[in-house]
Queue: 4 jobs
Job 1
Amino acid sequence: MADEQHFGNPGQGRDQERKHDRDQGNDNNPKQDADPDREKKKSLKDSNEFSDHEDERSIEELHRAAMEKEEQIPEEGNERGPWWMYAIIIATLAFGFFYMGRYLGEISDQPHVLFTDPAPPDLEEIELDLMAEGRRVYTRLCQSCHQQDGAGVPGAFPPLGGSDWVVGVPERPVKIVLQGFQGEIVREGVTYNAVMPGFGRLLSDEEVASVVTFIRNSFGNETPEVQPEEVAEMRESTSGRTEQWTESELDAFIDR
């Protein structure tokens, strides 16, 4: 029966023989590795070169190392300029300081003060020029109404040249300048009616004396000067008055 099975299935025996031979061949002739560096990689892997090491440095040390590395990299814009540029800057600054010191005058802690000749030791000793000061006051306050030539404005402001109110007693023009005037007046057949404000709060005794002196010696007039002391007395005598004078009130005050 065994022979029948063997001869009855001859292919099965040959397959077993080939398998046995293949197994024997594998043991005696090992298959060559496809990767020729396999053994080298294996040896390197077993060594410490490819092994992972834990970094024992602290966060501060790592940060410092990173910062030191960045500081070594030069930043754009910090390059040193050429020598001639520094020479021009120094020369410009030197010329600027020289120019300011030569032409801008002295340096002082008092702003807007021009240092010229020293002021006189005592300003009170300077004699007041009543006509010159009176011209300035008249130009500033009176000229717009009474005009530059003192002719006035018909129907509003009377002329100053030859007026009895101007060349008469000085009390009348002084009080008009101090408290003002209102109401109708008739001069040489012409009626004038306008309000003149008082300037007592704006002008000092010297300024009132100077402008009254100016109109009493201008426009064809010629009378003695009015002194600031006289104005001070007249101001004191009418210190309680706040309204403008009328013609009747002014006549009554002068005539009493």
Note: Residues 9 and 217 are 167 Å apart (CA to CA).
Job 2
Amino acid sequence: MTEELLVRDVMSKPVTIAKSSAITEALDRMIDIGIDPLIVVNHNTVVGTVSRMTIADKLGSKKNSTISPNAIHVANSVEEDFTTVYPDQDLDVLVPLLQRYKLVVVFDSEHHLIGQVTAGDMLRKMRPAGTLLDHSEKVYTIDSEDRVVHLRRRMLDDGIQRFVVTEKDQPIGIVTETDVAVAMRKFREIVEDRHQDHRIRNLLVRDIMSAPLVTIDVTGTIDQAVEQMVSKNICAIPITEQGRLIGIVTRASLIQAL
């Protein structure tokens, strides 16, 4: 199947943001469209990408606490390490690229931006064989009463993108880079500068988590997991067995298995 399909068969319309735009505009666009990261352009030239993780880092940085979120530009959060392909290349070229990058930029022969490919685009056409557990990742949990500053430190220090939130050892929600970015933005817009350092220490995980938690039973299939991810516009689904967390399947883990 992969020999017959080309990049153009899976690519989607590129979603861009100007380098001069505010990171709050970039965050709004990511959430509205369900895309992470966005392609950053400067005078129609692709200069990199901007992700929810980098936005969360900027909004959560103490050195930016006196700056309005609307005054922080995308230029301050651009990741210049990105990769490109052409529409007439074989689909197989995308697999190793998506195993490293969240998004692949598609150029035409004249180096004009014409598309992009994400893990979601790829999984609509290709899915790995096997069971959910074959392609699951370790699931990290955090208590709903833990502080957000502790959550952020674990994300940054250990490179963890998401935690399942528990209450009395029962899973009740999930908290991701998106939740942190949105929470930091709202916090900075509402709380005065002189109170931020104190007030942010009182912000709890339950205050920013996404709930209810979407899960899939261990007896489910990869097709069912992908369908839920696409329909609910989420990137990960915890796997349960008789109500107990045993793993998590993500778009990235499925791409790694291709």
Note: Residues 24 and 212 are 26 Å apart (CA to CA).
Job 3
Amino acid sequence: MLRVTANTQLMREIVDLLSVLTEEAKMSWGEKGLTVNVVDGSHVALLSATISDACFETYECEPVEIGLELGKLRDLLTLAGPSDLVEIDYDDAVGAVNVRVGQVHRILRGLDTNSMSDPKLPVLDFGCSATIDAEKLSRSLRAAKFVGELVDLSLDSKEMRVSVTVEAGEGVNVSFESGELSELTCPSPTQGTYSLQFLDPLTRKLASGLASDVQVRFQDKYPLRLDWSSNDGGASWTYFLAPRVTND
């Protein structure tokens, strides 16, 4: 059994961020809120969300997993007015998800969750981290994408750098000194190389108002990890992106 009511902004945030990686999501509704982990088709990137029940206007739930096509939910949300609430009612007897937005009622057929992936977050110990404004991070990655598809991230005790260089000799370099970062911890210099194909779309979403600060963690041959919170701390997000490892 599931009966929840949410403001449109919260549901758009959930759907928009998950849609960066996938069009189908297994949503685990528990007594204390929603958890969902998704991966892209090539299993290069993973996004995990924990949305507290306090983020919802109303929340009644017996633990249940529901598989949904995000595109259908996203289409419905485009009809929402500024003051409309989103009501979700799941009938496990028939597997139907009733979604109401304003006067619109749509019945969605739940996907078979047994056939959907259930990715786990890797457990890794990062020695270095930096916390940066989401807009600054997105802007630097957009600049990097002007000249390449792979970005080099590096950290030391004084600054964080975002750079890309291509064979033609063109390049982009952006640096953020420690005073421009909310937090910087780096006992020894480190670096990593990652795909902008995955990073750029996500950070653009975050910079649109979905996050203020983003914690960035990485090191050589490790995945990149991004962490941020939203909804006054009621929603926690974690993103992993596999590194691009080159053989020198």
Note: The longest strand covers residues 45-52.
Job 4
Amino acid sequence: MIARTVAEIRRDVAAARTRDPAAAGVGWLEILITWPGVQALLAHRLAGALYRARVPLLPRLVAAICRSLTGIEIHPAAAIGAGLFIDHGMGVVIGETAEVGDNVTIYQGVTLGGTGFATGKRHPTVEDNVTIGSGAKLLGPIRVGHGSKIGANTVVIHDVLPNCTVVGNPGHPVRVEGRRLEGPDADWVRLPDPIADAIKGLAHRIEALEHGADPDSEDEGDGAAGGYQLPQGDVDRAVGPNPAGG
């Protein structure tokens, strides 16, 4: 039991060192006592062991104290795999029936939550090597496939295939530059946004139509090049005497 606990702590510290640039050169003891994500995992293991042993009150008490100290709420019954890294962690919520695989990275403000008042399995299942960006909400008994990436502030309510990148609200599957990348190295600023791309396309067509040009043409010149010119008669009437007098 002691050997297993020590091994788990080592994995937690190693995950922080590997995936958090701020941990470079920081000693294991400092990470252990100052990294809230590591502390939350230690508290969850204790609460989980007490919960499985059917000890009353204490599991939830440990979880509540951990939430007060770290800002991270993990239900004692949640299944957490090895090598989970919670970066910063403030506002992270992991529900009762959530399942998190190995080597998962979660950033601050993430929710693995349920919907409605359903009973039974009602929280997400996150497979191995998944990265979940800041503020993302994964809701319901969905499954997020191996190696997937969830963009910041994405709301996911449907299953995610392996090795996909999902962005938007509701989440839309896209792919980063056509490559299947794994690990917490996504450039969140440059993730593709299909909704924004569609809006830009509509704006381009509207602007082209307003100028009388072919919306599918890149040339928005005037006159013979496709621009609309007001007929001369209309121009004369526009600059003539005001029919209302004055």
Note: Helices lie at 2-19, 28-34, 36-52, 58-70, 194-210, 232-239.
